[in-house]
Amino acid sequence: MKYKQLLRGMLASGFLLMGIQAEAKTVQVTLHAVETDVAYDNKGSTYRAWTFDGKVPGPVVRVTEGDTVEFTLINDKNSKNSHSMDFHAARLDVVEDFESIKPGETKKYTFTADNPGVFFYHCGSDPMIQHIARGMYGVIIVDPKDANALPKADREYVLIQAEHYENPDDKTAMMQNKWSNVVFNGGVFKYDPVHDSEATSWLQAKPGERVRIYFVNAGPNELSSLHPIAGIWDRVYPSGNPKNVQYALQSYLIGAGDAATLDLISPVEGANAIVDHSMRHAHSGAIAVIMFTNDADPEAGRGENILIR
């Protein structure tokens, strides 16, 4: 009898019907459009990039489903170009809210993060292809308000794919898709000491851990066929939405301007290599090695370490 009364009480309170729901909050996000020199390979070679906060990719923005985002874009007074911000997680007025601002100007707008997932953000100023190709892109992660909507990840990493063009002023080459390299997180073989002995970083996890990859294809032109060599994607969530789950995929195709969340679990020690399986893309820089070892760095893929600079 006591058990039945307890069960009725739990049902009445909704305890058994709902997961743990996060309360919506207001999150202030400020980014600066900065034109600066940025390294694009492990040797330290640089190009004149257009960036958010002086980094390629820009900072990771992370909020929770239902949050109100109060966004501010500041175009540095030393910029030579107008810039803007297009959040794929927002539903707004493209003309008013995503308008370009001149050097020294500030733009503000507010949106509600209605849908959980992983979304692209980028500069949308004309010509958009050049602003993206020169580095004005990043990711906004919208965590589900239901903490149980996704299996708990032991580690998380952000990977953003993009094409690198030798001459960032050559808009014709961009329109003709004449890139020199395809990169992850702004660097050629950035996480691949196999193909570049000067690479000093890679992804880490322990065998049996669930590794969650938040992947964005910034393009601006190419598709990505993302595959973990020596592994299988345990679960894939197109656009990162828990409702879109697919299981046990060898590769997943992600178009330019799109994103996905992909979970990887290795039952054994050793290495996997996350690649764009379009071999021209992989062999020009789009490879990230992930080492599964029992002595993996406990801080890797956690907290502020989900995007390795």
TrEMBL record:
Cofactor: Cu(+); Cu(2+)
One GO MF term: copper ion binding
Annotated EC: 1.7.2.1
Broadest EC class assigned to this enzyme: oxidoreductase
Domain Plastocyanin-like: 40-146
CDD domains tied to this protein: CuRO_1_CuNIR (cd11020), CuRO_2_CuNIR (cd04208)
Short name of one Pfam family: Cu-oxidase_3
Positions contributing to Cu(2+) 2 binding: D86, H88, H122, H277
Gene3D superfamilies in the record: Cupredoxins - blue copper proteins
Subunit description: Homotrimer.
UniProt name for this protein: Copper-containing nitrite reductase
Organism ancestry: Bacteria, Pseudomonadati, Pseudomonadota, Betaproteobacteria, Nitrosomonadales
Gene field: aniA
